[in-house]
Write the structure tokens for this entry.
Amino acid sequence: MKALRDPDHLLAEGLASIRGQYQVPASFPPQVQAAAEQAARRTPDAHADRTGMAFVTLDPATSTDLDQAFAIEAAGSDLLLHYAIADVAWFVADGDPVDVEAWQRGTTLYLPDGKAGLYPPVLAENAASLLPDGPRPAVIFTTRVAPDGAVKLEGVERAVIRSRAKLAYDSVRDSDVPAGFADLAGRIEAAEDRRGAARVDPPEQEVSRDAAGHYTLSLRPMLVSETRNAALSLASNLAVADALHAAGTGLFRVMAPPDERAIARLRRTAAAFGLAWPDAMPLDQFEKRLNPADLTHAAFMLAVRRAGDGAGYQAFTPGVLPWHAAMAATYCHSTAPLRRLADRYVVRAALAVAGGQPVPAVVTEAFQRLPATMARAEAASGQVERAVIDLAEAAMLAGHEGEVFDAVVTDIGESGARIQLCDHAVVARTQAHGVEPGARIAVRLDSADPVRRQIAFQRVG
């Protein structure tokens, strides 16, 4: 779970409890591990040699499951993005033990103290990972990016690459990345603005202790290098989605916009934080005013992230345009196959379409099953994430029992009033009769129990 970090392992006992409650797998079955070790020895023999291209990777410093490497070249006024994606399908055969286990897991689960991978580390963090310690098999998406940010998939090929460097977000310099990196990211961002995209990149929540020994939650905004790197994935995913949809195949990421009730709740949350959101301004325009380096703005960005019903997957359906409201575009997931099951099949479809070949029947059939499988996996991931946040909030508030906090009512439901604390990124519920959404109230913290991951407030004013 990437939305919260615990670098000093302050929540170790609580996280162990969450792992047990939600049956987060601690390892892989022996037959899966054995099959992965055998697959890791497989030598690429259907790949072009692209080891002469200057690919690099850019990830968190500690990451070893590297899905993407990139190279950029100028083509007149256009830029060509060569985006190398880990060729997981080269190592994982349909129906083998690794494949069956991946269908059970669906996604990699992230917690502050470690992850439960989709594939065994011998693949995900070694043979299939685009590490710089030797040649690796990959699938290269080549996307043409016009000056206005328009993207078009130019080609897809299996190739062996050699990453020149494992770059880290917090230490990368402009001279380390291929020329055109910032320009390409700027083009994609400008195109998003024109489409009215409303992507939210909330900060990470980080757990620490203050001088008095209390837990605190701080917010770390995304670095410039992270947002630029995300633009590369976005460009590739948009281009792949357009190509697959035109070919009458694919699996797409779809998301409806927040409904009127969610927007109203967000407006009340903005009021709780003292943010001036003009009545006539749509959410996507208001988001562009937010500065993730400002803690109040960052907390509101987290609220936006939780506001809608979330995104899902949809297989190609004739006559239906798959749409992702936050991207304001047709969009797919194809660039993280080491961490998401669906991406492995989208990559295989892109290879077939670009090569003028029919999409394999096993891939087309998988597109029909994947929406339910990924929904189940993402629901499990969401439960774990919510439990971790509940744990962190309870740990942060422990020791502050009896204190009074200002809050704004953001919603009324059967289980009471939903409140947003004005000075903390904490959402809770309390019994508050005779109030309307948007009302500012005072609440007393009656209890904060990290063991049960529960907090309780009482209205006092």
In short: The mean pLDDT is 91. The chain is about 35% helix and 25% strand.
